[in-house]
């Protein structure tokens, strides 16, 4: 995460606000086009985990190979949409400086190809998750971060148009990572061997799951890129630099939490397949609680010292970047509490209602945001609207999970997870805020507050966040680890 933060700082410095904003809004169009990626990743991983839970290795191979075929055709769909609708949006709707128009067309095409490479990598990534190869995923993630940092330094050499050079090198890194994933899986997972034979009976449930999940993921992508486009239309390309920085912060935090939850997701699916609901919901509660507490430990000092952190990180802060990042922290903190609920619904395979409800709410963010901006509201208001609609969707997911699995006690979830996390958040914020005003704004003081904040949140988590059974389990775990060390 620290490598990515440093990379972002250098990138903003070398590209400047305008080119950084251009890359975020144009690259965002490609992210919008490849909204199918999230759906297919979830679908592929779910069916692989179900097959593994049943001990059917032959079926794992069939699912994987059919997923490869489906993803290939998916790339063709992305290319068609990208070269028609996406290209029209870039050329006719978005607001760019006229002198950067040629560069915009080039980086759009490079970003489109990069997104297709990412889609082709999905089955291999899903296979690694299904086999719980978390260590290699972590190693590859660090390798990609280091390569991205190298790319930024290559941009500094001034070999040409910095924006075009950056987009070209991102494409090269994406292609290299794709090759590494394929080589590793072929050498270490027998089921990854390619036998490209389409099986209708295998592909049909994957495509069905994907189709229902499609609307929800489409709406999430549309909300993200739609907000970027609205801000571009009302305030110009510089505001997209601020949005890009906020999205970078959100991406890094999500990446951090996903690395924690990545081990839980396949276990949820496999326990659901075995109908071991006690174990499944134990993971739901623990995963939600601990992911929030980890996120809060990081987010609290960031929220209090956001302006200073951004100055240290970026040197020059674009307008609204501080408020955007603060609101993104709130958005991410709320969403992470309910993430295992979403994983559990995916485990059931019954994603239609969740996708329709959440998708509709996310789409509604755009007209409400347009109205707010049209009436002269601050750009911050767009993020506040997003938080309100996102929270509504997350609450609806808990009721859906109860409908699908009657053993899920959603009242207990709100009492044991949501209420405890809310209390820790309120108490922790006011205590640390009171402490922070006693210090100066020097780097030593900020580091001191960060340490105090982390210790305080951990104490609050132990006393207020955990119930007696969880506290005893944690104490036993610490004692066992201590005995092994001694």
Q: Would you kindly provide a written description of the structure presented here, covering whatever features stand out?
A:
Helices cover 86% and strands 0% of the residues. The protein is globular. The chain is mainly α.
Short précis:
By secondary structure, this protein is mainly alpha-helical. The protein has helices spanning 2-33, 36-53, 57-92, 101-130, 134-156, 162-188, 200-235, 237-261, 264-273, 277-304, 306-314, 321-337, 339-348, 352-374, 380-404, 410-436, 443-465, 468-485.
Produce the secondary structure layout.
Elements lengths: L1 H32 L2 H18 L3 H36 L8 H30 L3 H23 L5 H27 L11 H36 L1 H25 L2 H10 L3 H28 L1 H9 L6 H17 L1 H10 L3 H23 L5 H25 L5 H27 L6 H23 L2 H18 L1
Helix pairs in contact: 1-3, 1-4, 1-5, 1-7, 1-8, 2-3, 2-4, 2-7, 2-9, 3-4, 3-7, 4-6, 5-6, 7-8, 7-14, 8-10, 8-12, 9-10, 9-13, 10-12, 10-13, 10-16, 10-17, 12-15, 13-15, 14-15, 16-17
Task: Based on the model shown, name its key terms.
486 residues; mainly alpha; 0% strand
Mean pLDDT, all residues: 82
**Structural class designation:** mainly alpha
Please provide the ordered H/E string of secondary-structure elements: HHHHHHHHHHHHHHHHHH
User: Largest beta sheet, briefly?
Assistant: none
Distance between the termini: 32 Å
What shape does the CA trace take?
globular
Low-confidence stretches: none
Q: Total strand count, please? A: 0
- Count of helix runs: 18
Strand content: under 5%
CA gyration radius, whole angstroms: 23 Å
**Amount of helix:** over 70%
């Amino acid at each position: 995460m620290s490598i990515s933060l440093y990379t972002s700082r250098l990138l903003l410095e070398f590209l400047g606000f305008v080119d950084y904003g251009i890359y975020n809004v144009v690259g965002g169009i490609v992210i919008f086009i490849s909204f199918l990626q999230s759906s297919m990743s979830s679908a592929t991983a779910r069916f692989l985990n179900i097959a593994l839970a049943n001990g059917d290795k032959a079926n794992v191979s069939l699912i994987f190979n059919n997923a490869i075929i489906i993803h290939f055709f998916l790339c063709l769909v992305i290319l068609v949409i990208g070269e028609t609708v996406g290209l029209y949006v870039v050329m006719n709707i978005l607001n760019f400086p006229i002198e950067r128009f040629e560069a915009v067309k080039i980086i759009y095409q490079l970003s489109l190809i990069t997104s297709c490479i990412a889609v082709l990598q999905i089955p291999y990534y899903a296979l690694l998750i299904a086999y719980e190869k978390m260590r290699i995923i972590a190693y590859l993630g660090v390798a990609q971060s280091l390569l991205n940092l190298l790319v930024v330094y290559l941009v500094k050499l001034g070999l040409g148009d910095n924006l075009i050079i950056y987009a070209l090198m991102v494409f090269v890194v994406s292609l290299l990572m794709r090759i590494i994933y394929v080589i590793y899986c072929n050498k270490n997972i027998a089921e990854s061997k390619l036998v490209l034979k389409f099986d209708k009976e295998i592909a049909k449930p994957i495509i069905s799951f994907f189709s229902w999940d499609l609307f929800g993921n489409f709406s999430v992508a549309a909300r993200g890129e739609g907000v970027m486009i609205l801000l571009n239309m009302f305030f110009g390309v510089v505001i997209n630099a601020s949005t890009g920085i906020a999205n970078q912060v959100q991406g890094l935090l999500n990446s951090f939490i996903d690395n924690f939850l990545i081990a839980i997701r396949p276990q949820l699916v496999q326990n659901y397949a075995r109908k071991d609901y006690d174990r499944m919901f134990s993971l739901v509660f623990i995963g939600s609680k601990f992911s929030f507490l980890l996120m809060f430990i990081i987010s609290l000092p960031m929220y209090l010292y956001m302006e200073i952190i951004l100055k240290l990180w970026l040197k020059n802060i674009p307008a609204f970047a501080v408020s955007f990042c603060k609101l993104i922290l709130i958005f991410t903190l709320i969403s992470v509490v309910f993430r295992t609920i979403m994983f559990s619904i995916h485990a059931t395979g019954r994603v239609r209602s969740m996708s329709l409800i959440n998708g509709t709410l996310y789409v509604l963010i755009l007209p409400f945001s347009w109205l707010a901006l049209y009436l002269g509201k601050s750009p911050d208001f767009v993020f506040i609207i997003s938080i309100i609609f996102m929270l509504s969707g997350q609450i609806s997911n808990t009721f859906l999970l109860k409908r699908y699995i009657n053993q899920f006690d959603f009242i207990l979830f709100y009492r044991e997870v949501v209420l405890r996390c809310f209390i820790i958040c309120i108490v922790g914020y006011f205590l640390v805020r009171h402490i922070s005003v006693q210090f100066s704004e020097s780097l030593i003081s900020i580091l001191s507050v960060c340490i105090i904040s982390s210790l305080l949140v951990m104490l609050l988590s132990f006393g207020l966040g955990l119930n007696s059974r969880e506290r005893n389990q944690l104490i036993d775990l610490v004692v066992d680890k201590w005995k092994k060390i001694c």
